[in-house]
UniProtKB/TrEMBL annotation:
One GO MF term: hydrolase activity, acting on glycosyl bonds
InterPro entries: Cyc-maltodext_N, Cyclo-malto-dextrinase_C, GH, GH13_cat_dom, Glyco_hydro_b, Ig-like_fold, Ig_E-set
Matches recorded under CDD domains: AmyAc_bac_CMD_like_3
Domain Glycosyl hydrolase family 13 catalytic span(s) in chain numbering: 163-568
PANTHER family: ALPHA-AMYLASE FAMILY MEMBER, MALTODEXTRIN GLUCOSIDASE
Taxonomic source organism: Siphonobacter aquaeclarae
UniProt protein name: Glycosidase
GO biological-process terms attached to the record: carbohydrate metabolic process
Keywords: Glycosidase, Hydrolase
Amino acid sequence: MSFMTRCYFLPGRLQNLRYTPIAGFLYLLLMFPTDVLSQTIQIQRVSPAHWFTGFQRQSLQLLLYGPGIKGTKVRTTYPGVTVDRVQYTDNPNYIFADLTISPAAKPGMVTFQLSRIFPLTEKRANGSTVVNGGKEVTITLPYELKARTAKPKPVTSADFIYLIMPDRFADGDPSLDRVTGMADNETDRSNPFRRHGGDLRGVTRHLDYLADLGVTTLWLTPVLENDQPLTDENGTQRSSYHGYGITDHDHVDKRLGGDDAYKRLVDAAHGKGLKIIHDVVYNHMGLYHWLMKDLPSKDWLHAWPSYQNTSYRDQPLVDPYGAEIDRKISREGWFVPFMPDLNQQQPQVVNYLIQQALYAIETFGVDGFRVDSYFYNDPDFLNRLNEALFREFPGFFICGENWVNSVTNQAYFVRNRIQTSWKSNLPSAIDFQLYFATNDALNQAFGWNEGVQRWYQVLAQDLLYEDAFRNVVFLDNHDQNRFFSVVGEDLRKYKMGIAFLLTTRGIPQLYYGTEILMKNFKNPSDAEVRQDFPGGFPGDPADKFTEAGRSTVENEAFRYVRTLARYRRETPALQTGKLMQFVPQDGIYVYFRYDSAKTILVAINSNREEKGLATDRFAERMQGKTSGRDVLSGSIVSDLSHLKLPPLSATILELN
């Protein structure tokens, strides 16, 4: 053939797509007949939507999309901005303009001149058509350069993170429940798989509730546009309410309130001393992302002869004996059929994702990133992107979701002390290993390797991390069974888990509703653990954001969380203080958090009967202290030599 053909796997309606110059021309005639016939330059998309002066990174690759714009030249006379080159792809609808934004560039509206020569044709008497010269068409394209204003606040072990799924938290603006033009334009709270109408204004309205609880930082599941139609998942039609099927990286979903609502939330949170963690997805995008409707080039995605799902296995990526095909499937297989897997070795993809990360911080003012499905990404790309963020925002908080199967593998994907050829620069792990240990500690009978021994054993491996105090510790999240259900709806075990969460090392994270005993297992689906926060939606029979709306036991749980969270907020020893733990004995796990100002003893009794605890074994840490104050009750313990530990309890004492 004299023309190139591109063929690659796409699921569903796009599965057998072929691109040829002839097919592309026919596509343009069908989709853009006015533009082709009138021979004008039309730009339909520019990404990033705007940019900023003052970045150390002076390069910007501007993506421009429009019908048949291949061959268009880009120029500007704006001071401090130069066009270094224009790149074209095999898709005639894209150009990539490589710019330099020098330190001399000032905020303002850049005017680009876009020019292209359109051939002039002449019909001869015999009916044939010949090219007779050309006509140059020039248009202007305004593009805004803004001043940098973002000053992310560091997220550290002094913080307490609260995870929110906006669609399920609170509906602050019912007019957004139906937004004209969106593919999924219905809300149905009776259907667990559909959108329910929660939005960013709903979160903003409850910031006082969260601050009162002792929370310092909010993590929202992705808020960027998810303009996806319903997907068929195991025979059930589901909405992309969770936010992980992104269809536009430049803008916040209109059904959540759009860009302005997100900015207002961030500003309001900062005004109350709260920080915002932005959930980002690099590994994949939604099947209906605007780029997917007309890919810049076939190599933007990982292509397979037929559909290849990831194995979801982390071991091949760490295994020194692993096969290359297993590594390839883990990393380059698609997460699910409706989330196309991005090729992070393709230079334009790399630029696109790095720029979008910088864009999000500056545009919305967020304080940190939680990176979805971290180990599925290309490892060198991850380090490169993280370094780009650290260069512009020193100390910026990034935690990665690495749902792996061992402490070693978890440490491998963050800054660590392991001797390996590839080293991660990720600062923080979401600590799945301590999560698994917590479930075992509270549900297994005590044994050599069981029960509360699991806490001890996992923490004893912290030597693998560069700084385990950066790890995010949690009891449940949007992908896990609700904690109160995991512990058999036993309030005593619930309190033991909360006590551990808020007194161990690391950054504690609470899932929305855990403080009011929201429950359920992922049965038959994860929608069961993503139910609406009662009182967040019009017509709710009870408002559990208020004390009056909660039951007696729910208020007891709420007060327990609030008491410990507030104490932690005021106690540096529980934030940055050292940790010393002792080998559990007789079902009792004892550890200390301490600094130069305070020493706090935590004794967790996993037995179903009261236990006495002689404290002489802990003399090296107690250092002669003879009395203390019970943090939860406020009562004074005058004799520390022998403690009485109630059954299934956590005793927390501030030693005098």
